[in-house]
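Predict the 3D structure for this chain.
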Amino acid sequence: MRLLNTKNLIMLFHVVPSKVWFKKTLEVINRFYHFIPIQDIERYYFDNYKLTSCCHICFDDGDTTVYENALPVLRSMNLPATIFVSPKIVKEEVNYWFQEKSFYDDTDIKRIIAESHGVRYLDIARYSVGSIFKTMKLKDIQRIIIEMRPRGVHSFISRKNINLTQLYEMQKSNIISFGAHTMNHPILSNESDEDSRIEIETSINELSELINEEVRYFAYPDGTYNISFNEREVNILRENNIKLAFTTENRFIHPSDDPLLVPRNSLSYGNRPFVAMKVLTGSYWERLRSIILMHNTEREEIIKLKQIFRNSCVKD
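Done. Predicted structure below.
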């Protein structure tokens, strides 16, 4: 099978539903690709290191299912992987805003957003709360979540991410590398120059202190160039000596890529045929998916939502 495929890719996971699913998924990927460490990706971009039919596994956020379900499988198969985490989330054992929002009623959240931003509820009702939040500054998201807490089940919300003990266990496994992922997972393009820099630089420095190693890798929250981050963030990473930074652009890697804009294919579910199709189609996947499902991509939703909020500002 590998002889039929000469491409190279980076496979991104966020939540790993079970050990059985993850093992089957890796077995499918392994039919077409060899698994490699992130250091080989760095050599690929900087040292003209040749790769053929190779795949690197990585995880964003540090969800507890990565520790519970992915780590045992990676250990049993002796496979390298990289995890991009927020040192604040790990140390304080708190959840990201996008995890906490799932415990509250979507309609209530949208009504609060409509009222606070001066837009009609009906104008945003059909959009997901996730897409709406991705048009907002972190401080506004946090304010809305604080307002929702008395209405929800906040006191019963469990920790959804790895803690320090688990991070250190993963580090000692000698198969896991770490990269930074900001402090609070903001949509960086929505933030001021100062706030974006603080989120990035503090996460790099604090993660380096936690793992007692230089941090060379970074993953952009949400990861869509010119939507969730832009050249400003790329330049900040360059100034901080980050070697590789990863997007969520769904395509194969290529030697001509900017090392601070490395694409990744994401996966979170699916049976064997689905996984095989996704890891082999690369950039064609999103186009095929939009045709089959006949709905807008999240990128298109965010662009439309930003226009709605801009129009409300003009009316005011």
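Residues 95-158+294-316 form one domain.
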